[in-house]
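User: I'm new to structure prediction. If I give you an amino acid sequence, what do you actually give back? Let's try with this one:
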Amino acid sequence: MDVTIYHNPACGTSRNTLALIRHAGIEPTVVEYLKTPPSRDELARMIRDAGLSVREAIREKGTPYLDLGLDDATLSDDQLLTAMLEHPILINRPFVVTPMGTRLARPSEAVLDILSADAFKAAFVKEDGEKILDDEGRRIV
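Assistant: Good question. You get back a string of structure tokens that encode the predicted 3D arrangement of the chain. For your 141 residues, that looks like this:
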């Protein structure tokens, strides 16, 4: 399965998502988006395909969101996309793209919706100790 993750190695959610993909036996294309941001078209497509608004795809915490005045509700999607491309830290993460769909994997287990359930054969535990797959690889609700 062809999988791409827009990854930030400093983010626990992103690390957990990458580990889940690898737990499925998939070695994804890893794009460290802070170093190599997506193009405007790629970013807009990922946001749309994930079923999000541009505003929903912006990260506020630990970013220049407020300093840039991005809380102004009158800003257009085009203006928000420009800010995200000029300051990639504003792109919420991790976005994951697979043939089964695109998700903003927050929480990390949201990636399970776009990976084959048959790929998981064993338990998976997040970095913080939360178990999200049981011993047979089934999702724990």
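You can read the tokens as a compact description of the fold. Here is one thing that stands out. The CA atoms of residues 95 and 104 lie 4 Å apart.
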